[in-house]
Structure formats: C-alpha cells, structure tokens
Amino acid sequence: MLLLGLMHAFPCHPLTLFVNGVACKNPNQVTVDDFSFSGLDKPGNTSNKLGSAVNLVNVEKLPGLNTFGISLARIDYAPYGLNPPHTHPRATEVLVVLEGSLYVGFVTTANKLFAKVLNKGDSFVFPIGLIHFQYNYGTTNAVAFAGLSSQNPGVIRVADALFGTKPPISDDVLMKALMVDQNTVDYIQSQFQ
Ligand SMILES: *[C@@H]1O[C@H](CO)[C@@H](O)[C@H](O)[C@H]1NC(C)=O
C-alpha cells in the first residue's frame, strides 16, 4: 500500500502533507451531513458515446469517508452501454447488478481474462489495479452499484490514457505499441478529442 501510495502521489507544495486524503475537519465543526449523500436513486445520463454513466461517491462528495478506505458508485448502462476497460489504482471493487444483465471481466497481470455474464442480484469482484469492464449486452437499461476499498479510488481508462492525453502520445510510440499504422493511430486519436 505504501508503494502504491507513492506511485500515485501527486506533486504537492512542500509545506503540505503527502497523504491520499484530505485535511481533517475540526471535530467541533463536523455535522451529520458530513456523513450523508443523496441522489443515488437517480439514473445517470447515459446519452454519450459509451452509453454509460458512473456516479462515484468518493471523499469529495461524502466527506465522512475521509480516512476510512471505502467509497461507492452507481453505474447506469443504456442498452449496449459500456463502462470501458479501466483500472482503479487504489481500490478493489465489488459490484452488484440491480437491474439488467452485464458481461463483466478483468484481466490479470498474466493477461488472463476472467469474465462472465451477471444477472440481477449477482455480484463480482474486480481486484485492485486490474483492468476491468462492464458491458450491457441486453436490450434494457442496466443498473449496478459498487463498493470500492478506498475513499479516493482513482480511475484510469485505458483508451483515454493512450489516445486522449494532452499533449498526445507520439504516433511513433502508439504505432509500435499497438502494431498499427499512422492512419489508424490518427483515426483513433481523433475519436478522443
Ligand atoms: C444528457 O446528456 C446529453 C449529452 O450531453 C444532453 O444533451 C442531455 O440534455 C442530457 N439529458 C439530461 C436529462 O440531462
């Protein structure tokens, strides 16, 4: 955990603390509202290219999570909506399907795929740091909730991290890494502008 914390540390002003958290409030100023968040009954807006929406309730939205190593998310999927391959550098995730069916999976460090179809009431674990996805292959909306083992899990989307960076990663790097030609790289990059 210490190593992971260092790997994902952000540069801070030298006089600030180096912790994956936020400053603690004065206990006398804490109220019950610091421990509460509302709105998870509302579907996210899935009118986007991916057909999915994640409402991650981390320590920024629910201050009472601070220092407790836990957070939660609601994920909505339109028919054929995808929560695309991504990883949480600081959290294992456990997901439960409340509506619909999802094809979900993760990939190990040995590039082995563990994937299956989940139906309403089924749950699944995505181990910390591993690339994972959920795809609604059905013709109805799907809804899942997830618990994550960090107050600030972080998210890295694979495609965005390769093709949606600012500035862009050089074509030479992407051509060689993906074994494709420049037109293919440029085309994919154009989809992430
Ligand atoms: C959902 O997002 C789309 C695309 O950004 C937008 O046009 C639409 O107004 C949004 N719908 C709602 C209900 O907010």
TrEMBL record:
InterPro entries to which the protein is assigned, alphabetical: Cupin_1, Germin, Germin_Mn-BS, RmlC-like_jellyroll, RmlC_Cupin_sf
Keyword Secreted attached: yes
PROSITE patterns xrefs: GERMIN
Major subcellular site: secreted
Positions annotated to bind Mn(2+): 86, 88, 93, 132
Signal peptide as annotated in the record: 1-24
Protein name as it appears in the record: Germin-like protein
Subcellular location, record wording: Secreted, Extracellular space, Apoplast
CDD domains: cupin_OxOx
